Amino acid sequence: MAKPLIFCLFLLFALSNSLFGQQNTIDVDSLMQLAISNAAKNNPQERLDHFSYTTYEKTIITDSLERETNAHSFFTEKVSKNTFNAHHGFKEEVLGFNMAGFDEPRYETLGITLQSRSFYDEDFVIFNYRYAGPLSSRGLKNYNYQFVGDTTILDRKSLAIAFQPKRPQTIPGLVGILYLDTQTLAIQKVHIGIDDELVARIEQYYKYLPEEEVYLPHSSKLYIEKGETSKRLSLFRGKVSVGTIENNPVKEAIEGRYLLSTSYNANFDLSEKEKLEHPNLAIEVMEDADKKPEAFWKRYREQALTQRDLNSFDYLNNIVETQNIERRLAVINNFGIGYYTVDFFDFDLTYPVKYNNYEGLRLGLGGVTNADFSKNFRLEGYAAYGFKDQVLKYGIGGGILLNESHGAWLSFTYNDDLQEVGSFNYLTDRRVYSLFEPRLVNIT
Length: 444
Description:
2 domains, seven-stranded antiparallel β-sheet
């Protein structure tokens, strides 16, 4: 694991101890208490009523960090407009989404938090795992701080503060160096290292906007390696993980040990020029996000794609097609919510076998057509028979898609069945799937 990226943080610590060990005369705890107290003034989400910026993000999974490797095991790039206002918080509008190997992008990957937007948060999240924030209100309780020295960043004086968790076994924490503006104690740059169940490196850089005297995130680099323990790093709702991917239908497609993600922010705008549509959505994917031409991507990329990046498209297209990855992922996703997919029909797994005191053993079969049948309308139905009351029950129905972006359907159903006395079935109830429902045994 002798990679410069891995050892740079430890080298920085070593240099800090040797160069600045005799200069540690600052009361660092008082300094950090002041920095934490000033966080509300320095955190753009507290300081500003509104701001926005565009982000280009590229994420890869690979089994080797050597340049001569032909292709990555996973490649995706994304362009988003991130908008914040004090009333609704952050909203991400995905303008472009490009995922090698898949005809239709797997949108569930958008819900994965690779890393938090801000180091001012109470908890800093890395790949959906939470760590105590070094600049949170609990910072002094959870971290030991050490003054490293001073430097200059973006023509402004900076203080370098090293930190590490006091009780890593009790409260998971980060190890790294914060670079704080000498005048405001705002974050200018952050280097993070983790070497426990999760092996990770993070570098975040901030851009100073003099008109508002505030720093906004400018770029970020994230490196994750699967550790030696059982902590999972999963994509596709647990169907693909970095490192060990045992008993997995997509193991042959994505078997990389390393995940690397880089992002660059640009087009900073502090004015509220236009009304935000659908502000209550945290993430909204624009209708043509997966159909952007190459000219669109060149406009946002900070660097051109490498040859390994380009090779990944043909490589992953071949893997996904020959091993029918998209189909197998769809089957597994549906099974998790109680359906088993066969061609254009999803069999409902809540129907086959049930038991209650009134019907005795109840056997049934039912389901609904899926998008392979039609994306604009669906048919559904079921039939069930109770061996104790010897009565056939059934239901039929259909639906028409009204609005694809909102998932709005107009549906009609007719059921001739039993219903538990005093129970209610609301249209907005979430679907609950359980292979066995023991409470039904007590129902008379």
